[in-house]
Amino acid sequence: MAYLFIKFLIIYDRMLFVKRDLILLAGVFLLMLGLLPFLAPIYAVIIAIGIFFGIKLFVKNRQKFLEKQIGEGFCAECGEKVINKKCPNCDKTDNSV
Ligand SMILES: [Zn+2]
Questions:
Q1: Which of 16, 49, 58, 72 is the right S-S partner for 82, CB 3.0 to 4.6 Å?
Q2: pLDDT by residue (tens digit) across 43-86?
Q3: 75-92: b (≥16 Cβ within 10 Å) or e
Q4: Rounded to the nearest whole angstrom, what is the distance from the C-alpha of residue 76 to the centroid of ligand 1?
Q5: Among residues 77, 96, 14, which one has the least CA distance to residue 87?
Q6: H-assigned helices in 1-97
Q7: How far is the CA of 60 from the centre of ligand 1 (A)?
Q8: Which residues are found with C-beta within 5 Å of the ion, ligand 1?
Q9: Is residue 49 a contact partner of residue 31, using CB atoms and an 8 Å limit?
Q10: Using CA atoms, how far apart are residues 87 and 79, in angstroms rounded to an integer?
Q11: Rounded to whole angstroms, how far apart are CA atoms 33 and 55?
């Protein structure tokens, strides 16, 4: 049961991701159409593709950054971010001054 649930979550997440991609693609396409009267079509296409991959890269980096931020979780005692499985506030060990 748990396995099915996790599998469902993964599929759902992937569907959301694809949907977001389509929205982004539609937005970039509209932007390209908007640029067409002012630029040669080839430049409009290049700019649109550049923006599309720029945003994708930005989102990916942001996701990685967020994963890193919440990767180890937070201390249950004080809410401080846990670093190396230790809370900088509560787990001050003997060998740290
Ligand atoms: Zn703490």
A1: 72
A2: 999 999 999 899 888 888 887 887 776 677 888 888 888 877 88
A3: beeeeeebeeeebeeeee
A4: 6
A5: 77
A6: 2-35, 41-70
A7: 30
A8: 75, 77-78, 80, 87, 89-90
A9: no
A10: 9
A11: 18
Q: How far is the CA of 73 from the centre of ligand 1 (A)?
A: 11
Alpha-carbon dihedral angle through residues 79, 84, 90, 94, given to the nearest 10 degrees: -170
Token pair recorded at residue 28: 């970039």
For residue 80, the CA-to-ligand 1 centroid distance in Å is 5
Distance CA 57, CA 52 (A): 9
Compute the residue count for the chain.
Answer: 97
CA of 97 relative to ligand 1 center, distance in Å: 17
Distance from residue 64's CA to the centre of ligand 1 (Å): 24
Query: Scanning the structure block, which residue is given the tokens 């990685």?
Result: 64
- pTM score, two decimals? 0.53
Q: Which residue has the tokens 């945003």?
A: 55
